[in-house]
Fold this protein.
Amino acid sequence: MVGLRAGFVRSIVAPEVMRILVVEDEPRILAFVTRRLEAEGFRVDAAADGAAALEGVRRARPDLVVLDLLLPRVDGLTVLRELRQTQPELPVVIVSARSDLQTKLRGFELGAADYVAKPFALDELIARIRAQLRRLRPADGDERILRAGRLVLDLARHQARLGELVADLTHREFRLMLYLAEHAGEVLSRERLLAEVWGYHFDPGSNVVDVCVRRIRQKLGPDAPIQTVRNAGYRLAAA
């Protein structure tokens, strides 16, 4: 078993995780958005005011900024204006309670890539962020991927590839496959998968892990590399 795990570790190519700076002065919203982005596989930095946002961009060099407008110290439009001068290629997605047309147009004039009005659906925000990040994909086809044997996980597209087969995965299916790949060769209990992938504890009798695995196997076909270990859980096998 030790040799098998070592082989898997060598076969995994860790991608450069995309980094997002979230600028929001409301702690509840900041925590909510940060947790979800981290669950989606992004590396997240946070800033609670405009001055901290500008410093965060200089320090962390994010791939994208999620920017509120009503910020203390330095307002969001001023932050956006400075970013356009110093980092014109950095995509900025505004998320603001200011939803009037004049403010939206001003945001786009200053270089915002997208504008989401509060209150917002988090799934929509994630989709808009991914749409902007896809535009950053290099023209030579270089992708942010993770490999485990023949299995390839595309972090930007939420796809699993197995040979010629390409499967689009839901958020939860992709999170499960990513966790299995990161611990390839290791037997993972259902309880551990519930805690790490779903983020909270279900009833011990819940079958959500089994249902999710079944859906993934249906999408990947008979060569799906997820093994069931009786009375123990699941592991990603050599493919």
